[in-house]
Structure to design on (215 residues):
């Protein structure tokens, strides 16, 4: 008899836990749907943004031996953000566009015209001044990282994570091992100043630094 009562109570408890989890899942799904239905996420504009970046980068290749199309990089950066639960459309579009002004003929005005001022501002924050020599630009990235907005910091964290994983995968044509090591050291100095913005991205970066004995 006692056993039967215990069994019934356990079943009721398990049912209760299951129901609570189910309602949490339902709440999360409802939040995501609300974002999409509320048009805080516009799939047409998002796809237009990917198309825009693909056209702008169409003649560019990454520096790996396979000459991977450049557009793989910005799309990959946006994907890393979604994996880290960043679903703010402006941040994702800024990730897709983050190298267009620095590396193609795109202007900030063009970005604002098509994708709005908020996206323009994030892209501007993550764009280096190409009139300055490369070493100075790299130092400025370290120095200015702390002053960036939360949105720009997210894009920068994902950008560095993507590049480090790419460097881990293969060494760019013309690079030495020392140059790759130096890139990791520099990237860590930048991302140290971007911390406190996304645990998943920061933990993934730490995994890369641990492999290189930088932490
Ligand atoms: Mn980039």
């Amino acid at each position: 008899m006692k056993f039967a009562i215990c069994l019934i109570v356990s079943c009721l408890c398990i049912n209760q836990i299951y129901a609570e989890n189910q309602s949490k899942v339902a709440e999360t799904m409802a939040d995501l749907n609300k974002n999409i239905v509320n048009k805080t996420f516009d799939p047409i504009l998002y796809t237009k943004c990917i198309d825009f970046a693909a056209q702008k980068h169409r003649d560019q290749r990454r520096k790996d031996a396979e000459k991977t199309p450049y557009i793989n990089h910005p799309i990959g950066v946006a994907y890393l953000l979604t994996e880290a639960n960043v679903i703010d459309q402006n941040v994702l579009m800024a990730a897709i566009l983050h190298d267009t002004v620095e590396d193609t003929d795109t202007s900030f005005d063009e970005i604002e015209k098509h994708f709005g001022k908020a996206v323009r501002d994030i892209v501007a924050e993550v764009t280096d001044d190409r009139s300055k020599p490369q070493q100075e630009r790299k130092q400025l990235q370290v120095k200015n990282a702390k002053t960036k907005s939360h949105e720009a910091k997210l894009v920068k964290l994902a950008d560095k994570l993507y590049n480090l994983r790419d460097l881990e995968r293969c060494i760019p044509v013309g690079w030495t091992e020392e140059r790759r090591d130096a890139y990791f050291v520099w990237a860590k100095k930048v991302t140290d100043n971007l911390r406190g913005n996304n645990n998943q991205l920061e933990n993934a970066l730490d995994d890369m630094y641990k492999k290189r004995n930088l932490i």
